[in-house]
Structure formats: structure tokens, C-alpha cells
Specification:
The protein starts with 16 loop residues before the first helix and ends with a strand. The chain has helices at about 15-40, 50-70; strands at about 75-80, 85-95, 95, 100-105, 115-120, 125-130, 140-145, 150-155, 165-170. Helices cover about 25% and strands about 30% of the residues. Strands 1, 2, 3, 6 and 9 form a five-stranded antiparallel beta sheet that branches. The radius of gyration is 29 Å and the shape is elongated. It has about 170 residues and is an alpha+beta fold.
Length: about 170
């Protein structure tokens, strides 16, 4: 005796694999959405500036400092020694060594907590050595400025791709 399969009672939907297989995609999208919401809420956006007017005034101050560097004819050269954890180089004004102390600011492109400020104390020949242990191989924004913040040189540097950094003030 043969039984007709259409007369057999059908198993409930959850006993079949195809409904579960079709639900995997939307379930993964929901999980991914919740992860993205959590990431967006738990990590503040460091690139947003709250007070645009103050930021604009600060830009004008930066331009004055850039012009001062141009009048002084400043040229900064540096290299990073990863094994020794230090930045070495020189600062010159119209070809003469600058012996006054200055600051080197290294700004991380995305994480402000990794920014660094290095003190540079040049010797009689204008050469300096500044400690910079574990400098991450990324695209750093470099600002070299006088101790009194009266001039500045700015540039960008990826030390793992570019062995030497050279920043020269633009001629007026």
C-alpha cells in the first residue's frame, strides 16, 4: 500500500531549514545596526568644533605666525629613529643655526589623545634630539613653533614612508 505524501500532516514551519536560512540575513543586519549604534554613542567625534568663531580667530593668529616664520627664513629638517625612539634634526634661520629652544607638536590624524608635544633644545650647531618613544606609523601633522609661540612652521609627515621631514617657510 502506497501513501500519498500530500495527505501526510506537514511539519510546522520552524521544523524546516529554509525559513531559518532566510532569516539569517535580516538578523545579522539587526545585530550590525546595534553594534554601529553602540560605537557611535560610546566614541565622541573629535573632529567637530563647537565654536566656529573662535576657531576662525585662531586661524588668523596662525597666519601671523606663519608670516613671522617667513620673515625669519626658517627651515626645519628632522628624521625619526624608531629603534632609539627619538627625533633628530636641525632648525635654521637664513642658513644660520637657531639655538633657541622650540616645540615640535605632533598631531595624530584621528585620535587627539595620541598627540605629542616635544621640547627641542638645540646645541651650538643648531642640532637637536627630542625623545619620541613608540611613534606610531601614521600620517602626523607636524607644527614646529618657537617657545614664545611667536612663529610656526607646519607640515605633514609619515615617518615610515618619508625618512626625512623638511619644512621651509614660504617666502613673502
Amino acid at each position: 500500500m502506497h501513501t500519498n505524501p500530500s495527505l501526510l500532516p506537514a511539519a510546522p514551519w520552524y521544523r524546516h531549514r529554509w525559513p531559518w536560512f532566510l532569516m539569517i540575513g535580516p538578523a545579522l543586519v539587526l545585530v550590525g545596526g546595534f553594534v554601529m549604534i553602540w560605537l557611535a554613542m560610546s566614541r565622541p567625534d573629535a573632529m567637530v568644533v563647537g565654536d566656529y568663531y573662535k576657531q576662525g580667530k585662531a586661524i588668523n593668529q596662525e597666519l601671523k605666525r606663519d608670516r613671522a616664520a617667513s620673515r625669519l627664513g626658517l627651515r626645519f629638517e628632522a628624521g625619526y629613529d624608531a629603534a632609539g625612539g627619538r627625533i633628530t634634526g636641525s632648525l635654521q634661520s637664513h642658513g644660520e643655526p637657531v639655538r633657541a629652544p622650540f616645540h615640535i607638536r605632533l598631531a595624530h590624524p584621528t585620535q587627539p589623545e595620541r598627540d605629542r608635544v616635544l621640547e627641542a633644545l638645540p646645541d651650538a650647531q643648531g642640532r637637536f634630539v627630542a625623545a619620541a618613544p613608540v611613534l606610531e606609523p601614521t600620517h602626523w601633522q607636524v607644527v614646529v613653533e618657537g617657545a614664545a609661540r611667536d612663529w610656526r612652521l607646519a607640515g605633514s609627515w609619515s615617518w615610515n614612508k618619508q625618512a626625512q621631514l623638511a619644512i621651509a617657510a614660504d617666502a613673502e
